[in-house]
Write a structure and sequence with these properties.
Blueprint: E1 6-10, H1 18-30, E2 34-35, E3 44-48, H2 51-60, E4 68-73, E5 84-85, H3 89-97, E6 101-113, E7 119-121, E8 124-128, E9 135-141, E10 144-157, H4 165-168, E11 180-188, E12 201-204, E13 209-213, E14 222-225, E15 228-230, E16 237-252, H5 257-265
Parallel strand pairs: 1-2, 1-3, 3-4, 4-5, 4-16
Antiparallel strand pairs: 6-7, 6-16, 8-10, 8-14, 9-10, 9-13, 10-11, 11-12, 13-16, 14-15
The structure holds NADP nicotinamide-adenine-dinucleotide phosphate.
Length: about 270
């Protein structure tokens, strides 16, 4: 663990967790890792809370990929991005001492709206109409017009995001070792006039998805990047694909994605 000298605690509920943060700070200091007050100085960014807090830690730090993220839960729930529990702090301490911690790389999605500056997400991107009408859009894979979508909207998930919203929509759970983006429909209309694939599909890094939204109706689309809403006026084109950015997280060696899937779902 010699690469890590500094840690920043990202704690959206800091007031409730003040004592815990002070205790964690002492523990890391004993491991030779000093607490810093700005994220730029941090080799480790530790989120205190659940998966939603972990997602915010990554987002608020601009999807930095030159540091590692570490999720520490303060309640008894099981999480996906959060690998450590405060109640098992001795285990974390031992793992750091024994160098028994692995770095895991999670790919982020890159989303470009109307040729603007790209944004990133770790779970998923969603696009929906905000009016009662279904939204129509042409769905391209690379430059190939694959289908014409008519329905509530479309979701594109990373492998780690596959267990979130994507799973609730009937999408598959994807092993994060598979570098793929999953595209899942939100209530598509399928009849003799409108036809879409109707099932989720996986695309690899070389096959970005482009959505061209029907200009005849103003759908005021609502878009989300993980747990944040995105408001862009006059959205016409959205390009989504796996980016070259990887978010590095620290995990215990014997705690794989499938251990977590079993703990959370079975
Ligand atoms: P939230 O609406 O407060 O919580 C949504 C739930 O999704 C929480 O239980 C959250 O876990 C869990 N979650 C987040 N990422 C996950 C993942 N990768 N695998 C499995 N579960 C995950 O929002 P939030 O906590 O800020 O999380 C945002 C995420 O919520 C979105 O990215 C989306 O995946 C998910 N979401 C799901 C639905 C749905 O299933 N119908 C609808 C909207 C959003 P924690 O309890 O650990 O925070």
């Amino acid at each position: 663990m010699d690469n890590y000298k500094t840690i920043y605690f990202f704690a959206p509920h800091a007031e409730e967790n003040n004592e815990i943060i002070t205790h964690l700070s002492d523990i890391f200091s004993g491991l030779g890792i000093e607490t810093v007050q700005s994220t730029e100085e941090a080799d480790i960014i530790a989120s205190i809370g659940g998966d939603g807090d972990f997602l915010q830690a990554v987002r608020k730090n601009g999807f930095r990929d030159d540091c590692v993220y570490l999720g520490i839960a303060v309640d008894d729930s099981n999480y996906f991005y959060v690998d450590f529990h405060y109640r098992e702090i001795d285990m974390l301490k031992e793992a750091f001492k024994q160098d028994d911690v692995d770095v895991r790389n999670y790919p982020a999605l890159k989303v470009t709206i109307n040729d603007n500056k790209p944004s990133y997400c770790l779970n998923e991107f969603t696009l929906r109409s905000s009016i009662i009408k279904t939204i129509k859009m042409d769905v391209y894979i690379n430059d190939f017009l694959f289908e014409q979508f008519n329905g509530d909207g479309i979701l594109a998930a990373t492998p780690t995001g596959s267990t979130g919203y994507n799973k609730s929509l009937g999408g598959a759970v994807v092993d994060p070792l598979i570098q793929a983006m999953q595209v899942t429909e939100l209530a598509s209309v399928n009849n003799n006039t409108h036809r879409t694939l109707g099932t989720s599909f996986l695309l690899n890094r070389e096959r970005p998805l482009t959505l061209l939204i029907d200009k005849n109706v103003d759908y005021y689309p609502i878009m989300s990047l993980d747990n944040e809403a995105l408001s862009v006026r006059n959205t016409e084109k959205v390009e989504i694909g796996l980016s070259d950015k990887f978010i590095k997280t620290l995990k215990l060696k014997n705690n794989t994605f499938w251990h977590k899937a079993q703990r959370n779902f079975l």
